[in-house]
Amino acid sequence: MSETRYDVIGIGNALVDVLVEVDDAALTRAGLPKGGMSLVERADSDSLYDTLPAGVEKSGGSCGNTMAGFAALGGVGAYIGKVCDDQFGAVFRHDMTAMGVDFPTAAAPGDMGTGKCLVLVTPDAQRTMVTYLGAASNFAPDDVSVSAIQAARVLYLEGYLFDRDAAKAAFIAAANAAHAAGREVSLSLSDGFCVDRHRDAFLDLVRNHVDILFANEQEICSLYQTDDFDTALKTAKQDCKIACLTRSEKGSVILSGDDMHVVPAESVAKVVDTTGAGDQYAAGFLYGYTQGYDLAKCARIGGILAAEVISHYGARPEADVKALVATVLGA
């Protein structure tokens, strides 16, 4: 086995989030449906960006959120994602590094530009998102850092990235590299629509390359084409070593062989924004797992981080989650 430098290394869509406060008239002028999410080309993204007032620019993306939460807990993490040598690539690299997440990926050549998500926040706190995937959409096997992957206890794969054939091949190459070094592979299904588009490929990935699966109720039912959660649950436990299935206010179910742990959700005074709940659950679970905690305790840590992030706007922790976990668990 290779020398262990990281607890978790993630692979995902490397995007910069640009959070900007606007009024409703700005959405109307841009022709954007309020509260919607749009994928656009670079010209449209750049044109809209140039019309916006100053905002906050920081690293984003689902896997990026998970690695941020993981680092906030004290986990040693790394991230692989495709950015260019441009303004937004520099923002992404600096932000990840500043939070303590190693970013060993070299800047990609070409003029696609680093991907960005323009998050337009109106006075009523509605978030309208306009995303240009940029270089992230061209992630391919050559972007897989075998040495970095083999130096991590667990590889974490973001399902959102699993869209193009090159990315699918990259996921397989990364999983093979991890397993060749005696490491484990985890996957987040990310979104039911992702699963619907690539169900057969996801099934192959889960059954043949994944040890730890993260999915919510909609995603796991979509994967196995059933409306019955219990049916999906029984199938999932046959397909991977550990299945972590989240059910919003019902908590989560952890399956491992014949063992099943049903862990209640943490209480929240007020649910403000559910964005990032699954990302932070994975962060908490993987932190506990790589520290050697039992599965029920791992799920509890995941639930604590998910509860914290849905109590405010934004997809990353704002509280001292390391202290919060220690207080809740009495550690």
Question: Could you walk me through the main structural features you see in this protein, from its secondary elements to its overall organization?
Answer:
This protein is of the alpha/beta class and 331 residues long. The protein has one domain: 3-Layer(aba) Sandwich (UDP-N-acetylmuramoyl-L-alanine:D-glutamate ligase). The longest helix has 16 residues. It is globular and about 55 Å long. The chain starts with 5 loop residues before the first strand and ends with a helix.
> First CA to last CA: what distance?
31 Å
Biggest sheet architecture? 9 strands, mixed
Q: Total helix count?
A: 13
Tell me the structural class. Answer: alpha/beta
Overall pLDDT confidence: 92
What is the CATH superfamily classification? Ribokinase
H/E series: EEHEHEHEHEEEHEHEHHEHHEEEHHH
Report the radius of gyration as a whole number of Å.
19 Å
Which secondary structure elements does this structure contain, and how are they paired or packed?
Elements: E1 6-11, E2 15-21, H1 24-30, E3 37-39, H2 42-51, E4 56-60, H3 62-72, E5 77-80, H4 87-98, E6 101-102, E7 114-121, E8 127-134, H5 146-149, E9 152-158, H6 165-180, E10 184-188, H7 192-197, H8 199-209, E11 212-216, H9 217-223, H10 229-239, E12 242-246, E13 252-256, E14 259-263, H11 277-290, H12 295-309, H13 321-329
Parallel strand pairs: 1-5, 1-9, 2-7, 3-8, 5-6, 9-10, 10-11, 11-12
Antiparallel strand pairs: 2-4, 7-8, 12-13, 13-14
